[in-house]
Amino acid sequence: MLSVENLEVTYPGGIKALRPTTLTFREGEFAVLLGPSGAGKSTLLRCLNGLVRPTNGRVSVPGVGDIAASRAVLRRHRAATGMVFQHHQLIGRMTALANVLMGRLGHQNTLRSLWPSSRCDQRLGLEALERVDLLDRALTRVDLLSGGQQQRVGIARAVAQRPRLILADEPVASLDPATATRVLDLLRTICRTDGISAVVSLHQVDLARQFADRVVGVRGGEVVFDGAPARLSDGDLSRIYDAQPAEVLAAVDEAPRTRQGAIYALRTA
Ligand SMILES: Nc1ncnc2c1ncn2[C@@H]1O[C@H](COP(=O)(O)OP(=O)(O)OP(=O)(O)O)[C@@H](O)[C@H]1O
């Protein structure tokens, strides 16, 4: 479905966010990137969509090759790739439906995108909202929706795109545990039903265990575990969340959203 070969990212200032990494994400797989804050999960995800340009190596799609080979190839790859973000990236003053219809823009040429959405796109948008249980909120401004509902709109936007792949960057990091479980359950169910492959970054070990077909554990820009969630042992988790208690506490103070991973590290340190 999607391969990365010797992918390496060094940011300006010399930060090695990703060390040479080779991985293949399989068709229909729900893969979870698991790791602490700063491990390189977002960097890897963003490379998969060409949002971060690797310093070395490449991302390739079967039958297409390197996604960065040309602007046309990258555009096609992005049109087939739905993105779900931690902070939704929705436009608050627009309705849920209008936000979902943004997912269709990649399928239109520039001129067409200046016109109101076609009936066909509107139907796809409403169907996508129905699948995340928000049809009755289609005409509500998204800034009037709860965090969990907004993330479901984000998922509907990705689904309306009719993607082959969904990349989700910490999609439940700002949600309470019950809402996070519901949102991830919806995302995985839709991916399974439609045969969409997914790569999802998470901090929460329990959610990775519950939803992943495959866990890719990342630490310090390196893959330190790659396998089924049932194979994830306490030793593997210590390797992924390797940190001294003092560092872990500092991370909790700095970034409350990393708390779950940090607390796990504290327990296993
Ligand atoms: N644009 C950037 N410029 C410079 N350094 C960056 C940039 N983006 C990320 N980094 C650094 O690269 C490393 C990996 O960051 P990345 O965001 O990929 O990790 P992450 O595992 O997604 O973390 P988090 O869970 O906190 O989002 C970190 O040290 C981070 O500070």
UniProtKB/TrEMBL annotation:
GO molecular function, one term: ATP binding
Domain of life: Bacteria
Similarity comment text for this entry: Belongs to the ABC transporter superfamily.
Ranges for domain ABC transporter: 2-245
Pfam families: ABC_tran (PF00005)
Key words, A-Z: ATP-binding, Cell membrane, Membrane, Nucleotide-binding, Translocase, Transport
Transcription regulation keyword on record: no
Name of this protein: Phosphonate transport system ATP-binding protein
Family annotation (PROSITE patterns): ABC_TRANSPORTER_1 (PS00211), ABC_TRANSPORTER_2 (PS50893)
SUPFAM superfamilies for this protein: P-loop containing nucleoside triphosphate hydrolases (SSF52540)
GO cellular component: membrane
InterPro entries named in the record: AAA+_ATPase, ABC_transporter-like_ATP-bd, ABC_transporter-like_CS, ABC_transpr_PhnC, MetN_ABC_transporter-like, P-loop_NTPase
